[in-house]
Structures are given as C-alpha cells and as structure tokens.
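pinging the channel bc i need a second pair of eyes. not urgent but kinda urgent?? the chain im working w is below, pasted from the shared doc
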Amino acid sequence: MQVTFAFQGRHWWPRALGLMAVLLFAMTLPMTRLANGSVSDPQWPPLFVASARAALAGVLAMLHLLWARASWPDRSHRPWLLGIVLGGVMGFPLGMGWAVRIVPASHAAVITGLLPLCTAALAAWWLGHRPRLGFWLASMAGAMVMGVFAWTSSGGQSTSAHLTLLADGALVLGMMGASVAYVAGARLARQMPSAQVMSWSLVLAWPLTATLAVYWWPSDIHSLAQAGDQIQLSAWLGLAYVAVCSTWLGFFLWYAALARDAMRVSQLQLLQPLLAMLISAGVLGEAVPMNAWLFAASVLVIVLVGQRLAASGSSSPSSSSYASSPTSAS
C-alpha cells in the first residue's frame, strides 16, 4: 500500500518528512524518562520499557502489514532487517532506557548530538554518498555545539561519576545501534514502502520482544489492576508514546526521508537533542537556561549550512536513480 502526494517530488520533501520525524523522536527522551521514572521514584523498569515498547509496536505492525497485504521480505532484505532489529528495536531502546533513569535528558543529549554524524558516516560507506569536506566540518561543529550545551546544562547533576560513566557507555552503544538501524532502514526503503520496513522489523523481532517483556515485567506487580494502582498515569502515557510514535510511526517518516536524501536529512537530527531538552522543560518541569535560545540559533545556522554543503560529489547509481523516483511515505 503506497500513499503519494502531489508535492513529494519537490526537493524539500525529504527534509519535511525528516523534520516531522525529528519532532516525534524529540519526545522520546522525556517520554522514556516518564515511563521509567527516576532512581528516587522508579516506575516501569528500563528493561521492561525497552522490550514492551517494541512488543506493543509489533502488534500494530502486524495489523498494518495484514491491512496492506504486504508480501514477505525477500531473502536479500533479511540482513538489513536484522540490522534494524539489533540496532534500532533492541540496542538503542535498551541503552537509552537504562541511561535516562540515571542521567537527565540534558546529559543524554551529549551522546545523541553525535548521532547525525555517525549516521552520515555510515550512509557514506553503505549508500555510496560522497559529501564535500564542508559537510563533515558542519556536522562536527554541530555535534560540538550540542556537546557544549549539554555539558554546561548538566553541571549540577548529583549522579556519581561512576554511574554517569556507565550511562554514557550505554548511550554510546545505543547511538551506534541507532545509526546502523537508520542506514539499514534507508537502504531497505529504496526497495519497499518505508512503513513496511519498520513494520517487518518489529514483526520479526516480536517473538523475542514479547518474551522479554513478559520476563522483565515487574516481579512485585501481579495484575494489570495492581499495575494501575502502583504505576503513575504519566508512566503509562510515556510507555504508550514510545511504543506508538517513537518505535513505529516516527520511522515511517524517517526511513522515507533517509532513503531520498540521507546526507541532508541525517543532519536535521542535530536539532533533536535541543528539542528534547526544551520539551523536557514542559513535560518534566526541567529548567531551561536562557542561553538555550542562543544554542538553538547556533545549531539552526549549522544545520542550514550543512544542508547547503551536503551535495554529493559522486553517489552510487542506485542512489541517484532512487532519488528521482517517488515512493511511499507511509
């Protein structure tokens, strides 16, 4: 099932899709924090959230694939689907879910700010893009700006240095997994509708994610009624959001955008950490310093520069032919 739009052939269309996806993804950190709670006020266990979000999204994915009457993935698609499962369905949610219970969203942004650069590097390797040197310089500048912002905004955290180091390691591993999943998904989205890319990944992972969700269900909660009494409504809403939007719907847009223009679209994610921190101020009540607006303007300028410098010097034939052909956005 493909959905087409009259203006999807426009040059700005991939970036519009990517920006919508980034807005959805920006809610992931604060919503995961709501679902997990904190060390002092725990809600759902991080491992349960990481598996349950994928298991719940997997049910929606099954329904979507049945409705679309999607054909079974070809054998050549399966290695890329496995990359999405290991990196995006399991790796990133596990690493991020455990880390954000320990460190605030502002500190987690140090690592997530590096995600666009890592994704662009993998895209250049796997998808045959050859961006100019200025593109890489803009990417590194954006990552550095986000790192400085997150570092200065997290100076007051009370978490011990040892736990912070472990959380950073989990975030690094999760970021690497997300990069693999993003590029593998972009590659597959050239060959099948983007909605089916993430849906098939979730369905193939569902036996594992459902089993892990049952295994990691809180041992002191014996029924849904008891869960309703012990778990706050905000934690339920956080779990629902990361399952439906962060794990499923957001990737419909993201993979469609990456498949069309991986270089430029990946740089839009430089905005995600700052957006997540601004959203955290409203959702979690975290105070955002006034200099956040200065950093926001700086990142915006860097993103715009990176967009202008992302023109490929040479790209793979498959990339060029795909970029000129319309495909489904959902």
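so The longest helix spans residues 233-268. and The radius of gyration is 19 Å. — does that match what u expected or am i reading it wrong
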